[in-house]
């Protein structure tokens, strides 16, 4: 689990594992689809346009689906609901929401361009599974979409590839809530409503820069103001530095308020005798991990890679336009139902299935209906004509 992979020097930008995997999957998937289009004399530029349409509407749909699905547990009680909804840095996208958001937009675009819908969705289908494979790798780095416990009675791995996620991971928090594991009192805080929870990971493992940055900024502002007064600077300069020092003090107070959870268990700044330091508390937290679980994210990633390869092979040898997309719906739906039995992060709240399981069953039905319709249509779409690039303008 690596939600944050590294920080770019000088710029200070933190690269998120989930976002990086999504970007790699998207760009490489579009590149593969463009190559596939060129081989069958379709328009590669149209594929690139489809990719960006799918990106925009897919992300909107995937996020909306996730927010609706987890509204009560993850969003309803957030202090800033709007920011919680639009913040994608820690994951929170549902595959089926992305399909629901992107597919109508893509179909509308293809109809608008008056090209073969069947041919172009066949070109894109293997790349959709390719991109999903990288998205699931991002889920593994982020720690979401975990599988069920895979441990022996004494807590050891039941399978060699079972994984144990670190303190503060969604898997560990879920196991603690369901009383599958325990944590010491030092790592538990009680909220204003009386509910007990583990101290959040982002507070527990806060970097020294984030922890002491507001303190140093306040001290620096105070020192600059003192020097200005000692050197008898003009009133305008002193007033400007006083305003700067006041803003730094207000920022420090907000920072300390945000650390309120930590301050009930430790002294983040190492100034109170008898209390654990943040370093000691984080060292204690590192000794606790989740019980071993199935790496459901990696199962899903491998499954998507296999489907991408299979669909790519079918695309090469297909005789009927549209068959690749229909097979993707059937195979993806069936494999997702199997994978849902491994995952434990979704409730059985839709006709005895998870929402993803129910949508997977609908995908299978849709794929079968699609094949039945295809066999009533010509093998090749009448609009599947070879793409002829526009001639380059002649130099005068």
Describe the protein.
By secondary structure, this protein is mainly alpha-helical. The protein has two domains: about 210 residues, no CATH class; about 70 residues. Helices cover about 60% and strands about 5% of the residues. It contains 15 helices and six strands. The protein has a two-stranded antiparallel ribbon. A hairpin with a 5-residue loop joins strand 3 and strand 4. The protein is globular. The model has no long low-confidence stretch (mean pLDDT about 85).
Output the keywords.
mainly alpha; two-stranded antiparallel sheet; 4% strand
- Shape type: globular
Q: What number of domains?
A: 2
Total number of strands? 6
Main structural class:
mainly alpha
Biggest sheet descriptor: 2 strands, antiparallel
Radius of gyration: 27 Å
The spatial strand order of the largest sheet comes to 1-2
Tell me what portion of residues adopts beta-strand conformation: under 5%
Tally of helical segments: 15
Mean pLDDT score: 86
**Could you give the order of the helices and strands?**
EEHHHHHHHEEHHHHEEHHHH
Low-pLDDT regions: none
Helix content: 55-70%
Terminal-residue CA separation: 60 Å
In short:
The protein has 396 residues and is mostly helical. It has helices at residues 17-39, 44-69, 71-75, 81-86, 95-113, 117-142, 170-177, 201-204, 208-230, 235-258, 260-263, 278-286, 296-317, 323-340, 355-374; strands spanning 4-7, 14-16, 188-190, 196-198, 266-267, 276-277. It has two domains: 16-148 and 294-374, no CATH class; 204-276.
